[in-house]
Write a structure and sequence with these properties.
The structure holds 2 protein chains of 2 kinds.
Chain A lengths: L2 E10 L7 E11 L4 E6 L5 H8 L7 E6 L2 E4 L8 H6 E4 L12 H11 L4 H14 L16 H13 L5 E5 L7 H18 L2 E5 L3 H4 L5 E6 L2 E7 H6 L13 H13 L10 H22 L1
Parallel strand pairs in A: 3-8, 3-9, 6-7, 7-8
Antiparallel strand pairs in A: 1-2, 1-4, 4-5, 9-10
Helix pairs in contact in A: 3-4, 3-5, 4-5, 9-10
Chain B lengths: L1 H11 L12 H13 L1 E10 L8 E9 L3 E5 L6 H8 L7 E6 L2 E2 L5 H7 E4 L12 H10 L5 H14 L15 H14 L4 E5 L7 H16 L4 E5 L3 H6 L2 E6 L2 E6 L1 H6 L1 H6 L6 H11 L15 H11 L4
Parallel strand pairs in B: 3-8, 3-9, 6-7, 7-8
Antiparallel strand pairs in B: 1-2, 1-4, 4-5, 9-10
Helix pairs in contact in B: 5-6, 5-7, 6-7, 12-13
The chains are: A alpha/beta, B alpha/beta.
The complex binds adenosine-5'-triphosphate (2 copies) and magnesium ion (MG) (2 copies).
One magnesium ion binds next to helix 1 of chain A.
Chain lengths: 294, 317
């Protein structure tokens, strides 16, 4: 089934002179059960795209198909509650998402709202909190009585607690410390691989997500400028600067190695360890050749 | 320290400008000296607790000299934003003493101190007052009693430098995340405050905007009249600064140069930092015995491998 955008456009304030076209004729498919990275320069339409996934925004033109639902421009939208339960969206700013008087209320709000018993809700809340590395002592706090990073982790936990099939996260690593960022990516990767969740992550740090993402979408000026596998991204990386993005360092070096050693159609090695391992092999082969010559 | 020296050398190495500025040289140097000698920020044994009991800032003493660029690093929740809010009196220390630019922070001096400090908050939404980006920027500048010409010039210049020249007529709340962050940054930098505090000001910027921001900060720092305190987890931003204060559970536990931080495994663990890709790659290559900072082991060199070695083991960013 997956997720499809068919000729989707979105314009903010469509009827006013201040209208802003944020998406234009976007056609993409986001594979089910896969981890997809979305990148693109500031203002390219990433957050707008994500908000179309659970009906917070409805397309001004075209159709968004999510699970078994259709959201079409000009048509009356279907009931959104089932969509909201199955598609969990973490906003770019966590403050837009935490409303309750205590963190505990916030974390159990989703589960209760979708029919869990109080015990189940409390259990989900604690489990999600632990998954994000936050201590239970924070449960009694008002969401604004947390540090910025703790608040973002809490916002992610509140979505995890609902147990959605599709997890959509807008810049989830922003303001998290590096180790928390890595742990979060690994957690999302596990949820994808082990529980079959569909995970969609918007990020400015392509390099960090490269070893984990199955597919990538690159947005540019409201259009999907690229969509494809990591292999395809590596092959077309030369175009990234046209979309206002730098070529990520792992990709740059992998391409240099491919060219220097005439490597063909290999699965790219993009983590520090994988890249170093592959270089070690190449250098050893060189050394053996050198000995043979001598 | 290095950049402070560089700044002074620059001043000395501009004799052709001297004719254009007929000021009593001796007096100016003396005044400059007195100013330079002062610390921009001085904390003596400061503590603070949100609940009045458990210290969130725990006996912190620190100094930041005028013209310095200091990073405040540490794990989520260690107290960085709290420390910055104590600087301009948004929070009040329960004990200890804080001085900014030689003035002791207390009820009577709060206004004077706030004039010296420009702070970009972790969440830009907390900061906008104007109905457009331009109005928002103008609001701060009007507070400085600048003339209209100067206000217009600064808005154009700073918005342009941060790539938001096209967005001046837009409502700050109707911008993308990265656009908001740049609008917040532009409004503060345009005021050219003596002490600039950036709390995760680049966390949602794309690479281009981030390097535009760093370029601008480097220039401002080069002028030596600004003191910068940046709170960040970003390696490149840390490398741009001169000194890193590492925080752990409400205390400042280390004061190191950026490259020393990335070489110190224990400190990195403490502030939950990971070395950038480049340094991780160098470590992985070294561990496999492929290469060291001095060369590639045992093979005829492929120029790409040698180039990578220089990049990975090089000392600058
Ligand atoms: N509420 C809004 N009203 C009007 N225009 C908006 C609104 N939100 C975003 N826009 C505009 O729509 C375009 C796309 O914005 P969007 O937030 O989707 O970008 P983004 O790719 O998420 O950027 P960033 O990386 O900076 O978060 C931008 O030009 C932005 O200014
Ligand atoms: N308003 C508040 N009331 C009570 N406790 C608070 C409040 N704000 C922050 N805290 C707590 O104080 C400690 C320090 O928070 P602070 O916001 O200074 O951290 P930080 O280093 O800026 O973290 P981050 O990197 O996540 O932004 C944390 O344990 C946090 O939970
Ligand atoms: Mg966005
Ligand atoms: Mg903070």
């Amino acid at each position: 089934m997956g997720i499809r955008f068919e000729h989707v456009s979105y314009t903010y304030d469509a009827r006013s002179p201040m209208r802003q076209t944020a998406l234009q004729d976007v056609n993409i498919r986001l594979a089910e059960g896969a981890l997809t990275g979305i990148a693109g320069s500031s203002g390219s339409g990433k957050s707008t795209l994500l908000q179309l996934l659970n009906g917070i925004l409805l397309p001004t033109e075209g159709t968004v198909k999510v699970l078994d639902l259709r959201l079409s421009a000009g048509e009356k939208p279907p009931k959104l509650a089932p969509l909201r339960r199955r598609v969990g969206l973490v906003f770019q700013f966590p403050e837009q998402q935490l409303f309750a008087r205590t963190l505990e209320e916030d974390l159990s709000f989703g589960p209760l709202n979708f029919g869990a018993s109080p015990e189940e809700a409390a259990h989900s809340a604690r489990k999600a909190l632990a998954a994000m590395g936050l201590g239970e002592s924070l449960l009694r706090r008002h969401p604004l009585q947390l540090s910025g990073g703790q608040r973002r982790k809490a916002a992610i936990a509140s979505v995890l607690a609902m147990g959605p099939d599709i997890l959509v996260l807008d810049e989830p690593g922003a303001t998290l410390d590096q180790v928390s960022r890595s742990e979060l990516i690994q957690l999302l990767h596990r949820l994808c691989r082990e529980e079959g969740k569909t995970v969609i992550i918007v990020t400015h740090r392509i390099d960090e997500l490269l070893p984990y993402a199955d597919r990538w979408v690159i947005m540019h000026e409201g259009r999907a400028a690229f969509q494809g596998t990591v292999r395809e991204l590596v092959d077309t990386a030369g175009k990234l600067p046209d979309y206002g993005l730098a070529v990520p360092e792992p990709i740059r070096w992998w391409r240099e190695l491919e060219a220097a050693y005439g490597l063909q159609a290999e699965e790219p090695c993009l983590s520090p360890a994988a890249l170093a391992e592959r270089i070690a092999q190449l250098v050893q082969t060189d050394a053996r050749k050198e000995q043979a010559y001598a | 320290m290095k950049a402070r020296k560089a700044g002074r050398q620059q001043e000395r190495a501009a004799p052709e400008d001297q004719g254009a500025a007929p000021v009593p040289a001796e007096k100016e140097t003396w005044a400059q000296h007195a100013e330079e000698a002062a610390d921009m920020v001085a904390w003596d044994n400061v503590s603070f607790a949100y609940d009045g009991q458990h210290a969130d800032i725990d006996g912190v003493s620190l100094t930041i000299r005028k013209g310095e660029w200091v990073t405040l690093a540490g794990a989520n929740g260690c107290g960085k934003s709290t420390l910055s809010r104590l600087m301009n009196g948004l929070l009040r220390a329960s004990s200890g003493c804080i001085s900014i630019g030689g003035i002791r922070l207390e009820a009577g001096t709060l206004g004077a101190i706030r004039q010296k400090i420009g702070m970009v908050f972790q969440n830009p939404d907390n900061q906008f007052i104007g109905a457009t980006v331009e109005e928002d920027m103008a609001f701060g500048l009007e507070g400085l009693c600048l003339d209209t010409e100067e206000i217009r010039e600064r808005i154009t210049r700073y918005a342009g430098r941060l790539g938001i020249g096209q967005l001046l007529r837009r409502h700050p709340q109707e911008l993308s995340g990265g656009q908001k962050q740049r609008a917040a940054l532009a409004a503060i930098l345009a005021m050219e405050p003596e002490l600039i505090i950036l709390d995760e000001a680049s966390s949602m910027l794309d690479e281009k905007a981030r390097s535009e921001m760093l370029e601008l900060l480097r220039e401002m720092h080069g002028e030596t009249r600004y003191t910068l305190l940046s709170i960040t987890h970003d390696a490149e931003e840390i490398f741009a600064s001169q000194r890193v204060l590492v925080m752990d559970r409400g205390r400042v536990v280390a004061d190191v140069a950026p490259d020393m931080l990335f070489r110190n495994g224990e400190l990195l663990r403490l502030c939950r930092m990971e070395p950038p890709f480049r340094l991780q790659l160098a470590r992985e290559l070294e561990q496999r015995g492929v290469m060291t900072a001095d060369g590639v082991t045992g093979a005829m060199l492929n120029p790409v491998v040698e180039e990578m070695r220089k990049w990975a083991f090089g000392s600058s960013m």
